[in-house]
Structure formats: C-alpha cells, structure tokens
Amino acid sequence: MSDDDEDAFPEWDGPLKKHLEKVESRKSSNTLKNRRVAMGQWRDYCESEGTTILDASAQNLDDWLDHLNNEGYAGKSILNKFYDLSALYKFLHRRTDDDGVAYIDEDFIDKMKKTNLSWLNTDPEINEHLDARYLEFNEFEQLLEGCNTLREKVLIRFLWETGARAVEASRTRITDFARDDQTVTLRTAKQGEGNYEERDVYYRRKLERLLKEWIDRGGRNRYLGAENSPFLLVTKESPMMSAQRIGEVVHDVAVRAGLNEKVTFFDEDEMKEVELTTADGRPRYEFSTHSLRHSYAVHRTKNGMPIVYLQRLLGHSDIDQTRIYLEFRDDDVEEADRNYAPTV
C-alpha cells in the first residue's frame, strides 16, 4: 500500500477501517462507494440514538430501516444498504482483535435475514401501500382534536409547522427559538460525535400561541424536573423526550383521531389481506411522525415552493431526496390537470 493509500479512509479507524480496506482490495469501486455511504449513514444514525456501530442492536437496525423508508428511499435501495451492513457485520463477527476476541459477539443481521422483510419488497403492488402518508388540512384539524394534553398539541403543531424529524424535535432546546422572528434552529447529526448541521425553519402564530402556554405560562413546568431541562419537550421520567417516545405519542394521538390504520395489501398467492410488518413482526401503521414531515413538504410543493428552498428547509443533503415530494397521488394529478387544462 502506498503512502497516499494509508489514509484512504480518514473518517474510519479500527476494524471498520480494516473492512473498507478489504472491500477496496477485493471489490469494485462502485461497491466500495456504496459500502462507505451505507456505513456512514448507519454510523450517523447510531450516534443519534446514543450507540455505536459495534454496540448497535437488531432493534436499532430495524428502526433505521424504518427511518430510511420514511425518508423516501426505495425498497431496493434500503435492501442494498441492509446487505452492505450484512457484509460488514459478518466481517466483524469473524475477525478478532489482538487478544483473539471477536469484534462483535453476535451477527444479528444474519438472523434478521430470516425474519419478515417483505415490506421492502420492490413489487409495485406492495410498494404503493408504503407511500408516505400526508394529511389534508381537515385531517390535520382532526389530528389536533385527538390531542388530550397541551404537550401533545405543542408536539403535533411543532412537527406540522417545522417539518422536523422526530430526533430533531427531541433535541430542540428552548434557546433554539427566536420567538420575535418565529424561527427555530434544528440540528441534524452528522459524522463525528457531537457534530451537528444546523438549519433555521419558520413557524406561524398558532404555534407561538401554544409556546406561550407551554413555556411562558407554566404548562411545561408541570412535568417533574422541567425547570432544570433545556429541552422543549420533556416527560415525567426524563428531561428530554426521546425520538422513540415522540413516535409513540404521535401514534396514540392519531389512533384517538381515527387516522391510524394498519397497512395491509391483498396477497394474490394467499388470496387474502395481509398486514405489513416490521422486521421484528410489529404491525406497520399508515401514520407516523414522518407523515407530518411529509405533509410539510407536500403542501409547500403543491403551493409552488421551489425545490431548492424546500431542500434547505428539510435539511436534505441530496436534492434527489427532496424530489420525492414532486411525486403526487393520482387524485392530486387529476385535480391539477382540471385546474390547468385549457377550456377551449
């Protein structure tokens, strides 16, 4: 290996770097590129969840697959990333450190291959049921009616008006708000522990009114320990509401509002309706925190917002991720045609 090659992977070290060096020597440049990207995205997600690649669990990976799906990645793309990580963990399980101890005790991905990954099927008949759900305005009002507490109203309105990811909402601090300007700074985890990319987004008067009740008039301080917490969203048990807990709250509100049905499709082989599930067998629901982010993007796109502005507001590093929101439902296309077609 030449001196120039010794630092070919400066962002990696230890066994992870060794794996990439092995891929570089044995696989195509395209395989190396894809492996490196998948590992980088997986590391970022692990850091956002407070873990590492070496310490991650099957549950972490399953949640990441959900995250990729919610971000609009195609099933085939997600599967490719899954198999990139499968090769990585096989390497980590078989290789040992200087003391002869395997880098990981168990290759949990090998077991996941045997579970239900049918929701990543690239068959269009299945994929059409996995399109990200977005809310019409009347449905959003219905969702608000499903809120039982001020905290739920703040959370739902915050996600709707800012397009924040659940993990971004979780780490939002009170000091991130510029209340006079009605802006808030969101942080997205990037490579390197504690390294975040920031962006400012804007909110409306209705959220500001809720913030006054929540922050200024004592609603937030009803939660034990809230006075000593810097975070916007708190719980009775924790000074920061986790991204997982945010997902649970949104799910519960959507169920109360009558908006959250299980996702099913008709299996022609079995000749019956089949529920789509996660890799560990949990049912998939139509509505999630990402539905609010998706709604944020779709309504701005339908109102004519240029895609480069939307990319910035969503915090997408790749504009192709943003282009997903240019794909509308059939009824949206029909309505647009009726509005724009000539009358002659």
Automatic annotation (TrEMBL):
- SUPFAM superfamilies named in the record: DNA breaking-rejoining enzymes (SSF56349), lambda integrase-like, N-terminal domain (SSF47823)
Q: Which InterPro entries match?
A: CB, DNA_brk_join_enz, Integrase-like_cat_sf, Integrase_catalytic, Integrase_recombinase_N, Integrase_SAM-like_N, Tyrosine_recombinase_XerCD
A Gene Ontology BP annotation from the UniProt entry: DNA integration
Keyword Ribosomal protein among record annotations? no
Instruction: Supply the alphabetized keyword list.
Output: DNA integration, DNA recombination, DNA-binding
One GO MF annotation is: DNA binding
Q: Which residues form the Core-binding (CB) domain?
A: 10-93
Specify whether Lipid metabolism is a keyword of the entry.
Answer: no
Record-annotated Tyr recombinase domain positions = 130-338
Q: What is this protein called?
A: Site-specific recombinase xerd
